[in-house]
User: Fold this.
Amino acid sequence: MEQAKISTSQLFILMILFQLSNSLLIPLAMKAGRDSWLAILIAAAVSIFLFFIYRALYLYYPTLLLTDYTEKLIGKFLGRILAFLYILFFLYSAARVLREFGVMLLSFAFPETPLFVACAMMMLVVIYTVFKGIEVVARTGELLFVIMVMLAFFLFLLIAISGLIDISNLKPAFEDSPKILDTVFTETLYVPFGEIIVFTMIFPYLNQSKKLGKTGIAAISITGASLAFTTILNISVLGVPLIERSLFPLLTTIQSIQVGGFLQRLDVIFILALVIGGFFKVTVYTYCAVIGTASLFDIKEPSKLAYPMGMTVLFLSLIIASNYSEHIEEGLKIFPLYAQLPFQIILPVFLLIIAFLKNRKKG
Amino acid sequence: MSYRKFIKRKKPKEQSEDLEKVEPKSIGTSIKENLNIIKQKTGNSPDIIIRMLTFSHDPRVSTAIVHVDGLVDNPTINEFLVQSMEDSVQEKLEEKDIFKVFSEKVIAVSSLETRKDWDSLFQALLSGDTIILADGKKEALIASTRGGERRLVEQSDSEITLRGSKEGFTESINTNTALVRRIIKNPNLWVETMNLGKQTNTDLSIMYINGIVDTDIVKEVRQRLGRVDLDAILDSGYIEQVIEDESSGLFPTVTHTERPDAVAGNLLEGRVAIFVSGTPHVLIVPAVMIQFFQTPEDYYVRFPISTLIRMLRVFMFLISLIGPAFYVAATTFHQEMIPTDLLVIIASQTESVPFPAIVEALIMEVTFEILREAGLRMPNKISATISIVGALVIGQGVIQAGIVSPAMVIVVATTAIASLATPNYDIAISARLLRFAFMLSAAIAGFYGIILGLIMLIVHLVSLRSFGVPYMSPFAPLVPKGLKDTIMRGPIWSFNERPKSLHPQNPVRQGKHQKPLPPLKRRMVRTNTKEGDKNES
Amino acid sequence: MNRKWIIPFFMAIYLPLLSGCWSSIELRDLAIVSAYALDKNEDGTYVGTFQLINPMNVPGALQGGQSGQKPSIATYTATGGNPLEVADRASTKVSRDLYFAHTSLLVISEELAKEEGLSSILDAMERGLEFRTTTNIVISRDMKAGDFVQVLTAIDQVPAEKAIKSLEFTEKLYGENIATNLQKFIKAAVSTGKEPLVSGFTVEGDIKKAKTMEQLQSSEGEATIEVNGIGVFKEGKLMNWIEGDRSEGTLWVLDQIQQAPVNIDWKDKKEAISYKVVRQKTNVEAQTKDGKPVISVHIRAEGDLRAIDVPVNVTDPHVLFRIEKALQQKIKDEAEAAIHEAQKTKTDIFGFGEKLHQSDPHSWKKLEPAWQDVYFPALDVDVTVEAFIRRTGMRNNPYLFDLNKKSD
Assistant:
């Protein structure tokens, strides 16, 4: 751990940006079709419970990282192995996000550019940021958040005045209720909401631990609301069939904007949202992997790890899948079941039970 | 982490021992010897003027007045030193201690002190004071006679305002501190002086308002100045570069100004000013990014107007940063984003241009930088020629020859004007340099490159600190109350607190409820008007 | 320390980047395609004609250019098995990179639209990176699409823009056609409860001469591009054309009318009073009654009187009320005629099915499979119209009215 501290508002922004990042851009909860916005809201509500599990763990060990207190909870050997697995999980997640980001960028804006180059450029900035530490990450978040909010406002204004919104596209609602729940528990809960597990590595930096609960709830609800809103916007502009067929619904929505013959073709806004989102998620994941490794192996200067770990993420992102379909297949079928479910839900619950038992004995 | 480093600076190195140990450190009894030492040390320079005075009643007691020609105020020396001493020479002195006589009865200058060591005597002599030596005395008198030719207080050339004080700092440190004192008439305005520069012995003053400023910042300033061991300090720029948090970066973390009102405003917010003798540029620390987009005049005009102007400045900064890069990215990577009609126009212009857009942009930018540099260093008469050459030969000719497209010239010219219009030169030149980096990244990866560059820039900026204060505050870390005076300029009556990021000791700036209100009777309220009440409308 | 190797490290990373700017392309290496026309050959292959903008010849674009001397467009033709192959083949003929991001018009010949349908063509367009979903689709009637894009136009330098502008203006001013872009078309095509509509264009005059500069030399021109009818699609194929009043009626129901004129008869005089709509709103409501779908269309129009060819006293509110009544009847007739026509051809161009889906998803599930063929043609549509005259133009009574009074 470094000596820095972050404020509740910084944590709040970090959590929102982290969760929004790529989920704003890809079709989210599309299994639920027209009601995907509802699935998102339900997932957000459920993830508040998840957040409270993480928070409870944090309250037992308010000065320790997740990778530190595993050791205290389940013994030195097992705890260290688990911490190591978590670090791998973070690294792999970072690599996945980077890969997704790279493919998105190339597939719509830079088709001829090699994936490696696009990812390497991004990783360069990520490494630089991670090297600077959590304080800089948090502050960068604050500034980028303002940009994102302004962009969102501008976009919504343009979409609204260009008369694209057709609310009737949302009707009929609640056509297939079981499907909504199915979507929530197989997809949406894990990405993006379950991903806040990484914040167990950041909670200890908080300067006002009492306000964590409120901050978390606010962040998750705002994320859920904005994702649901984006989905509603996409559906009302494009209609479900078109969203289902497009890789990036938000891009298609932006491309349909035509205001006054001049304000059209605003793809650059999408690139901006894409790069900021991708950058942020990869940075937070990489940072958590770096700080976790540093505490696990007792490395004095964690920033030195930024280069090697960053490079690892970069190369990992290139070798995890041979093509994008394979990558998506892994992301939708294998990864949630074998990695996200245990790491985000089962293990934290298990750790919490142990922590509860251990502390009760003491008390 | 790196930003914590400034706390554990290396201790200043031990000063190297003087090689000339032979020389006596303090003054001797013989006046001849003393004068010889002075002559010898100054190499018999003719501007060191020595005048002997002998007392008629006691020829044993001879005195000498030493001063440097040009540094001293001649009337003072003539009237209050030489004249009165000569007068006293006629009389018979009862007192044995001649210096006591001088200081009590004879010499009528504002400050007089006795010193023994040569170092401080020379220091005083070369600062414009006059030394009075007397035979048989193991000490000397220093009479303050500083003066000589100085530039008058004039309007500053580099920071021009339409409204507000026209006074600008001069090269004289005393005048400068006085200019600020004239604005803040408060005993809590404290000044500390020091002397830096091994060869130049430059005077330096730190000024702050006790009770407002955070004492840690003052301590930090003192400590950083304390470790300065430069040969020469020719301008406050020297000091700036050795006390900055990060001198290798492109962004200034110390601001400077030539205007007393700007200094006063900053002192009142809880900052520290550093005056350096010989330059009108006064340093102000700590500095935050947004300060470079503000001018004192912003506070003198109505707030909605200055808010708009500040927004314009930030916008101009962005143009001067990424203007050409944006053009290069749009025309070589993202042609689909340009409206069709505009694209056809640009395409028809670039049709005959033999270079890629990036080369075209670099040619024009470099040309412009050359023109600017030439115009800046030339005497006024020649610079008119340069502007003609620039406008006609380069502007017109380059387009007609079809080497550069008119669209590119428009972009470069707009960028140039935007960069010239940024109020602070320091921040404008950072943008000037970064512009080339952005152009290259735009040529490599289009908007992706620009956006990554911007993120990198943001990361760099938020990691900076100036004397412990985050450079991007109050944006990051966010201080909501501080936002009132950033890109926005809130009304004066709302500035109830000093900037929180400076940790002022006394955060309350002014009384509450400063907002002016029209008299109650003018507002649309139902009041029971009695007969006889004035009811004008 | 770390810093010492940061710079070399970054430089090393940037080194490979310097070797190439992969996706960059200079403007002068682009051939901006303004329109893309697709025809069908006898042997079943596609014939694509590309209308390229020649920037040097676009007047006003460059001072001292040869503007006005040469046509501002150039066309190239290529053949291939699918639209993308056609584009690839065409690039062997053009010295530059064909650039489709600014293509504003996709012209399909009537023949191709009828026989092949648009599905396979549009998939290629939509999947492609450069093609924008806001590209307009039109159909060239009774002529080759290739000829259509080769016709030069006088006022608009780029013919594709002329076509789009006339589309937009006639849609706005006359309400007799409809601007359909790729996205709208696909959205309607994939929905079971809605079918797409596409405007048709014809060229009147001597097409051969219209392709040369002769076209631009006379004020009259050799041929003109004209909007002509709305094509109805079913299952991606062109079914039939809606023309004239029918098309206006269609647009009334579709809520697409912006400023259409409505002419009504008055006392035996045909089209005596002309009414101009300035604001219009159509609400379609769908319900099921006893398992049978019922659609009610409510049209509300507001507008001014523009031309009055008969002596009527328009200052009299009662007269105005009668005119309003006549207007309502006229609009209602037009709308009903359009609906009947659609029902005859068994194509739900109005999206009634979709409305039903939204209001009553359960019964829609039952109706959906046979909607177009069974339920839609038998649909009971109730059209109600409200028309308001807000102003009577700049004068009160027509001078005919005063003349009449004189003679009385």
Residues 8-362 of chain A form a domain with the Amino acid/polyamine transporter I fold (CATH 1.20.1740.10). The mean pLDDT of chain A is 87.
